[in-house]
Amino acid sequence: MGDFASKVLDALDDERVADKIRRITASPSLRQRMPSQSSRAYSRENEELKKRYDELKQRYLLLENEKDDIMMKYSSAENKSSVIEKELYTVKAENSSLEDELHTLRTENDSLKAEQARLKERIAVTEKYARGIAEKYEAAEKYYDMYCRLSDEIHGTLSRVLSCESPMLFVVSGSQRGSIEGLWDTIGYSYGKYSDEELNILKEIFDFFFELYNSFTNTYERLDTAPGDSFDSKLHSRISGNVNGTISYVFLRGYRNISTGNIEKRSMIII
User: Fold this and answer.
1) Long-range CB contacts (< 8 A, 24+ apart) of 161-167?
2) Across 10-14, 84-88, 99-103, 199-203, which has the greatest mean pLDDT?
3) Into which CATH architecture does domain 221-271 fall?
4) What is the pTM (predicted TM-score) of this model?
């Protein structure tokens, strides 16, 4: 036995034997038949890797589900966006229509404001006219009575100029521009046709209505014609006397338009 052991030890010292032993122990088949501590560690690592793989796979499936949910939400959002765009287009069209309508209403409002301003101006003139008539009404009654005492012939001549139905109608009819002109023409061309008293009454009535009308409109002014003035055919109309010379009598003073300066009626005079 001792010799065997001694021989074994001597054999192990032999480099060829040692190399053979190293090759045998390094053989894969031997490692499979005799698991080493390293292979057991590898097995544990493999188990851990498998477990990690399962966890990652589960996580992947969860992420896939989340992706599907996100895609569904994205598709729903796209549909909602399309609906919103259509609604926005409709709202823009309605807004454009409303802006056009607003522009029209503003234009109409500006027109109404302008019309309102014109009406206010007319109302102010009318109110001033009415106040003037009220103030003049008492004096008008006196001239109305004077006019009503004149002859039927005069009333007939002035039937389209002055009303004898009531003091109010008398004032309203006589304070018009056409009535001023008609009354002046009737008086101016009636020299010698009616009595001096009748003509003087008519001239007083004309003066009253001329002042009344002019107090509302400030349109006319009387010509400053007086005896002793030299005759001027642009300002005077001769009813008797010499062709040229000095004015001896002013039968009826004429008047001019203040704005234009035009002579509306020349003074009726005698030279």
Assistant:
1) 161/186, 162/205, 167/137, 167/140, 167/141
2) 199-203
3) Roll (2.30)
4) 0.51
